[in-house]
Specification:
Elements: H1 3-9, H2 50-62, E1 67-71, H3 74-82, E2 90-94, H4 99-109, E3 115-119, H5 124-130, E4 135-141, H6 153-162, E5 166-170, H7 175-178, E6 188-192, E7 206-210, H8 213-226, H9 232-242, H10 245-265, E8 269-273, H11 283-289, E9 296-301, H12 306-315, E10 320-321, E11 331-333, H13 345-350, E12 358-361, H14 367-378
Helix pairs in contact: 2-9, 3-4, 12-14
Length: 379
């Protein structure tokens, strides 16, 4: 089945009682049992919900996975993966990654004895050098947030297997429409479904997709026991959003190309971070494992000052100044003070994230209007 067809039909079966083509929102906390421990597959809504089940089946289908699990946020999904580990275990992570992930790792889990080693995962040798006998997980973002670095997923899979570790890929920036890490050897794929999967800036949710049945049972136990599950209304919204993922991603990519090229040609822009350029250091790998380069773009101005960046950030009209990404509307973000503020400045700068960096989430508006907006803001 082709991807566009799979996206439309994933997880969807007509409601057996009414024939409704859309799964109902099962707004219930519990389920009546015929006798003790005799039920219809549902006991309590933290453990199971029919709307969530349909979404989890859709998650599995669009990532070519055997299993999908829905969580109340992307951070909650990340939290569940780290709870697979024990004190003394080591996690090797992409050094350029979402600030909320960095905060969760360093401020919550480090005090429980889990060690996090941040390296440039686009450098295979650096990852190999960081391996220890206690390495249990490789955590990779590709493309990274916000510097758009690219990691070779197949190479990371081989490294993880050589160490007896799992590989988890945060696929939020690419979405399943552009990249499928499980097909390249990843053990777990994580999404902030708040972003491209939901696609309309109206829901918070996270997802995990995977192939291994035993690993699925371990993660389901954590999901059920810790309770970071989404409500049925949120599941319905993401199910609805997924149906147009392919159409939206095509437009995000088309607009992304136009805006990245315009920025690169602008004499007031010093550098553009976007893996679609042939001179991007990760372009060859990105081209081999992605079906397009997406609508996430970061850039720096020639006038490399925080004041000038703030002026531009405050001057856009169509690009709304806000956190998050992946919605139909275009957003502009200042990582150093917004999405990545939880990372110490020295650590940010060591990884190449300057205070003057501006990040765009290019929406699906008319590209000419978006370019006009950037033109008047940059000046």
């Amino acid at each position: 089945m082709k991807l566009a067809t799979k996206i439309i039909h994933a997880g969807m079966e007509p409601d057996p009682s009414t024939g409704a083509i859309m799964i109902p929102i099962y707004q219930t906390s519990t389920y009546v049992q015929e006798a003790p421990a005799q039920h219809k597959g549902y006991e309590y809504a933290r453990s199971q919900n029919p709307t969530r089940k349909a979404l989890e089946e859709a998650y599995a289908a669009i990532e070519n996975a055997a299993y999908g699990l829905a969580f109340s946020s992307g951070v909650a999904a990340t939290d569940a993966v780290i709870k697979l580990l024990s004190p003394g275990d080591q996690v090797i992570c992409s050094s350029d990654l979402y600030g909320g992930t960095y905060r969760l790792f360093t401020k919550v889990f480090e005090k429980f004895g889990i060690r996090f080693t941040f390296v440039d995962t686009s450098n295979n040798e650096a990852v190999k050098a960081a391996l220890t006998p206690s390495t249990k997980l490789l955590w990779v973002e590709t493309p990274t947030n916000p510097l758009m670095n690219i990691t070779d997923i197949a190479a990371m899979s081989a490294i993880a297997r050589s160490a007896g570790a799992w590989l988890c890929v945060d696929n939020t920036f690419a979405s399943p429409y552009l990249q499928n890490p499980l097909d390249l050897g990843a053990d777990i794929v994580m999404h902030s479904a708040t972003k491209y999967l939901g696609g309309h800036s109206d829901v918070i949710q996270g997802a995990l997709m995977l192939q291994d049945a035993d690993l699925r049972e371990k993660l389901y136990f954590i999901q059920k026991s810790c309770g970071a599950v989404p409500g049925p209304q949120d599941c319905f919204l993401v199910l609805r959003g997924i149906k147009t993922l392919h159409l939206r991603m095509e437009r995000h990519c088309e607009n992304g190309i136009r805006i990245a090229q315009w920025l690169k040609a602008n004499p007031k822009v010093a550098k553009v971070y976007w893996p679609g350029f042939e001179d991007h250091p990760g372009h060859t790998v990105a081209k081999s494992q992605m079906r397009g380069f997406g609508g996430m773009i970061s850039f720096e101005l020639v006038n490399d000052s925080l004041e000038e960046a703030r002026r531009v950030l405050s001057a856009t009209k169509l690009f709304s100044l806000a956190e998050s990404l992946g919605g139909v509307e275009s957003l502009v973000n200042h990582p150093a003070s917004m999405t990545h503020a939880s990372i110490p400045r020295a650590e940010r700068e060591k990884n190449g994230l300057r205070d003057s960096l501006i990040r765009l989430s290019v929406g699906i508006e008319d590209a000419d209007d978006l370019i006009d907006d950037l033109q008047q803001a940059i000046g």
